[in-house]
Specification:
The chain is 64% helix and 0% strand. The chain is mostly helical.
Amino acid sequence: MVTGSGVVACWTLVDGDCDLVADASGPTRLGLCLMLKFFEIEGRFPEFIEEFPQPAVEYIAGLVKVPAVELAKYDVAGAKRHRRQIREALGFRPSTGADEERLTAWMAAEVCPVELVEDRQREALLVQCRVERIEPPGQTRGEKVLVTARNRWERAFCTRTTGRLGAVGVARLLALVGEGDEDGTTLLASLKRDPGAVGLDSLPSEILKLTAVRQLGLLEGLFADCSEKTVAAWRARARARARAIKMYPSDFRDTAEDVRITLLAALCSSRQAEITDALVELLVALVHQINARAERRVEKKPTAELKKVRGKEGILFKLADAAIGKPDEVVRTALFPVTVRRRCRTWSRRRTRTRRSPRPRSAPPCAPPTARTAGRRYRPC
């Protein structure tokens, strides 16, 4: 929605605009002004009157002194002369067949490999036309450019992937959807399933699955120069169709061979990486769990033995006193090798500090005998 400040900033007529629309009047003047400002903002001409924002229509109508309802009389599709005037004023030219072919090649090489959303591809096409000062193709021709560019890029991507796999890799992938190959069908079905949490119960099956995928011989850098979104998109196509059901081997066989190979390669390559990462995470978790259990067992045994001894602190204090009191006797050879003299002194001092002593009774307060203190015991001052 266009706000008030946006209307003033983008749809205000400047001196050159006023000279362009000076000869027009009534609905023609209003429509020409809106066409001019719309082309400056969007880089294209509108297909319908409804594409003009209503706040902009009211704002322009107030500037040219024409009622906004008069815009319904303006023929947007038939205003070819106005389009030519606007192109000449802004320095644009109509697009030709050669321009469309060049734009198609540019889209296939630069935009489609990194951008998969159709709306953003369409925006990129408009931006490139603005840079080249070309009026964008109409809606039908523009969609033809986008579809042709996507198809051309997909063919190039499939050809490059098939060439990197080689004859051996292609044969192994095609065996996954071959008729009568139960092992390949089973592996393909397991790869299409969503990867769940890998645990000790599923560890053997995941290892077998990873071994089977590695036997396909996929190159590590098969999709190294492709974006992750591209591989994820091809993998999604290999796992489900538009009607939200999983593809069976017969569905793969219905596609073109180069597309079939690329779908299988994207699926197997991504699942191989996911299974490897999941197994590594499981191994790390198991190592941490084993270390934690070992530490608990090591600490549990001496702790349990100490808990069985009653008065263990008193025994330790007596041991410290004996070590300090008789350092030259047998204690020196039996005790000091397993402890240190400084620690024994620390234990002995701790016992002395914590040993209970009778609390002295506080002396009564000093106060002279008075009538109020009669009968109470006070210390004489």
